[in-house]
Design a protein that fits this description.
Blueprint (H helix, E strand, L loop, with lengths): L18 H26 L6 H7 L4 E6 L16 H16 L9 E7 L6 H13 L5 E5 L7 H5 L7 H6 L5 H4 E4 L2 E7 L8 H5 L2 H13 L2 E5 L8 H4 L6 E7 L8 H9 L6 E8 L15 H6 L4 H5 L2
Parallel strand pairs: 1-8, 2-6, 2-7, 3-5, 3-6, 7-8
Antiparallel strand pairs: 4-5
Helix pairs in contact: 3-4
Length: about 325
């Protein structure tokens, strides 16, 4: 025989799971995790990305930024080029006038192009900046004076030839003997580095280097000098006294922010005259650089990929 001792009873809400606690924890984690992720990402990201990064870390004048080139060619500017990269070089050419405006010298202006380390695109900038100047009906000479790792002839696709080292070491070689031009850049004279010497620093101390600069200043409006990286060797500093201006190239998503201290120290100590920074290889798709005023022509429009749904439903 069964007998009911106590009637069963229970709470009106379940003991587990605790919905309020779970919702509160989920809200807390949902808010905190994104901030932690963004903080760690910025903490571990030591690369330069934009003009803002440069202005936060240096007091050096900013000359302009150059978007990543979509073409495989090393020469990205000519009379008909309307890409964002070509327009960037035109803008830098215009900004150059403000830096050199105080100069009263009627002789040609010598512009050094250097960087902190190799791989930042100083030879690419040198070639295309010289091309941009030549398009403005100026007499322009491009000189490869990175005697350790010359890139000018390689980028232009021409074979190695006599150059600066041959001029310095051989009294019979004249400037006219080592000058050449390429059909891609009309109106631009070029002098390559020549053979790689065993003692580049000593060669640059030669009196013939001084003679070279004195001569070309009389014959050209602008002389663009592709020099060696300043953080690796002293070559550029040895001849910096001949420069009217120094264009310091930094590469976006490549150079460590801490390395900007090298450029800042050179600027403060005035070891390079009239320094101005150029940010190379910015990614326009991520909003680095300005992203406006470039590429009104069809060449740039064709490079912009439409969203997938617009390509399907035309």
């Amino acid at each position: 025989m069964q007998k009911l001792l106590t009637v069963a009873y229970g709470a009106s809400v379940p003991i587990a799971p605790n919905k309020k606690l779970i919702l509160l924890a989920s809200l807390f984690i949902g808010l905190i995790l994104p901030f932690v992720f963004i903080y760690l990402k910025n903490l571990l990201d030591t690369k330069i990305h934009s003009r803002k990064n440069i202005e936060e870390l240096t007091t050096i004048p900013f000359l302009g930024d150059i978007p990543h080139s979509e073409t495989g060619s090393k020469v990205v500017i000519d009379n008909e080029s309307r890409t964002s990269t070509a327009e960037a070089f035109r803008l830098i050419r215009t900004n150059l006038d403000f830096i050199l405006a105080k100069s009263k010298n009627d002789l040609g202006k010598i512009i050094f192009v250097t960087s902190t380390s190799s791989g930042e695109g100083k030879s690419f900038v040198s070639i295309n900046f010289a091309a941009a100047l030549s398009l403005s009906s100026k007499r322009v000479l491009l000189v490869g004076m990175d005697l350790r790792a010359p890139k000018v002839t390689e980028y232009l696709g021409v074979p190695e030839r006599k150059g600066i080292t041959n001029y310095i070491t051989n009294d019979k070689v004249t400037l006219n003997d080592i000058k050449f031009s390429v059909p891609e850049i009309k109106g631009l004279d070029i002098i390559s580095s020549g053979v790689i010497p065993p003692n580049p620093s000593e060669l640059l101390l030669s009196t013939k280097v001084s003679d070279l600069f004195e001569q070309v200043k009389k014959d050209y409006d602008f002389i663009i000098i592709d020099t060696a990286p300043v953080n690796l060797v002293t070559d550029t500093l040895l001849i910096s006294k001949y420069a009217d201006m120094c264009m310091y190239v930094t590469r976006a998503n490549y150079l460590d922010k801490r390395m900007l201290g090298v450029a800042q120290n050179l600027y403060i100590e005035k070891k390079l005259p009239n320094m101005a920074l150029v940010l190379n290889d910015t990614d326009m798709t991520k909003g680095y650089g300005y992203g406006y005023g470039y590429g009104y022509g069809n060449a740039y429009v064709e490079q912009v990929k439409k969203p997938w749904y617009k390509r399907i439903f035309k």
